[in-house]
Amino acid sequence: MTKANAWISAARPKTLSASLVPIVAATGLARGSGYEIQWWIVIFALLASVCIQIGTNLVNDAMDFKKGADTEKRLGPVRVTQQGTFTFKQVMTGAGLFFLLAAFFGIPLVLHGGAPIIAIGVVSILMGYAYTSGPLPLAYHGLGDLFVILFFGLIAVGGLFYLLTGFYTTAAFIVGLQIGFLSTVLIAINNLRDISTDILVNKKTLAVRFGKSFSKIWVGFLIFAPFLVAYYWLSIQRWWVYIIPLLAFPLGLFIAKRIFHAEQQEKPSTEYNKYLAMSAMYSLVFSVLLAAGFQI
Question: What is the SS3 assignment for the chain?
Fold first, then answer.
C-alpha cells in the first residue's frame, strides 16, 4: 500500500457518507419548505463536515492503537497506526490538519450564520477529538452512540437548516432524529463486531456494557426508528415524506435480519464489514428518498 493509499484508507472513505447524509436531508427539507437554496452554503457545510469526520477517524485510528484496542486480532479494516504505516504522532498531526481545514471551511458559514454556527463548529471539532481522546473519551465510556445521534443527526441537520433558512423548526428536529438514528447504525454494528477486543482494553461501548443480545436489539431499533419517528409527517399531512422513504425499508430489513443471524455465531466475524457498507448505503438511500419526499 502506497503512502497516499494509506492516508485514504485511514480516512475510512466508506464511512464518510455519514457526513453527506445530513446535508442531503437538510437541503431537501429547506427546499421543500419553500426556501431558495444557496449552494455555496451547502458545499462549505459538506466540506467542513467531511473534514471533521476524517479528523475524528484519524484520532480514532491513533488512540485505539495507543490504548490497545487495535491489535492483529482486529476484524475490521486495517488501521494505519496499528499496521505501522504511520506513527502515532503522524496520524495525530494529520487529524489536527483536517480539524484546521474544517475550521477554515467554516469561516464563511460563521460570517453568514453568526454565533450559533461558531458554537456548533467549535463543539463539533472538540467532540471529534474527544471521541477517543482526552480525559473522558466518549467511545470508551459508552457515549459514542449518543455523540453520533447528536452531531451527525440533530446538530448537522439543524445547523445546515438554520444556515439555509435562518430558523430552526420541529421539522428540522424530526429530520435530525431520523438521520441521527441511521448514522448510529454504523457505530453500533462496528461496536458489535469489535466487542471481544474492546472488552480486553476496557472500552465500554454499549455492546460491551450490555452484551450481544442488547446490541442486536439496539441495531434493529436504530434501523427502524426513522420510520417510527416519521409518524410526525403523517400528523401534519406530509404523506409523501412518510411514503417515499419506505422504499428503503426492504434494505433495512435485510440488514437487520443478517445482523440477527450473525449474532447467533459464537464469535463476531468479518462478515460485519459487509453490513457496515450496506448500512452506509441504506442511510444514503433513505436521505435521498426523504429529500425527494419534501419536494412533493
Answer: CCHHHHHHHHCCHHHCHHHHHHHHHHHHHHHHCCCCCCHHHHHHHHHHHHHHHHHHHHHHHHHHHHCCCCCCCCCCCCCHHHHCCCCHHHHHHHHHHHHHHHHHHHHHHHHHHCHHHHHHHHHHHHHHHHCCCCCCCHHHHCCHHHHHHHHHHHHHHHHHHHHHHCCCCHHHHHHHHHHHHHHHHHHHHHHHHCHHHHHHCCCCCHHHHHHHHHHHHHHHHHHHHHHHHCHHHHHCCCHHHHHHHHHHHHHHHHHHHHHHHHCCCCCCCCHHHHHHHHHHHHHHHHHHHHHHHHCC
Per-10-residue mean pLDDT for the chain, 296 residues long? 85 90 98 96 97 94 77 62 88 96 97 96 93 88 93 96 97 98 94 87 92 93 97 96 97 94 61 90 97 96
Q: For the chain, what are the domain ranges?
A: 16-294
